[in-house]
Amino acid sequence: MKFEWKAYEDKLKKLREFLSEAQALSPDMEARLFLPGEEGADPSVQVPYVLLCYYVNEDRCYQRKVELFEYYLQGDIKELINKLTAIAEEFAMEIEQSEFGGG
Question: Is residue 3 pLDDT above 80, yes or no?
Answer without folding.
Answer: no
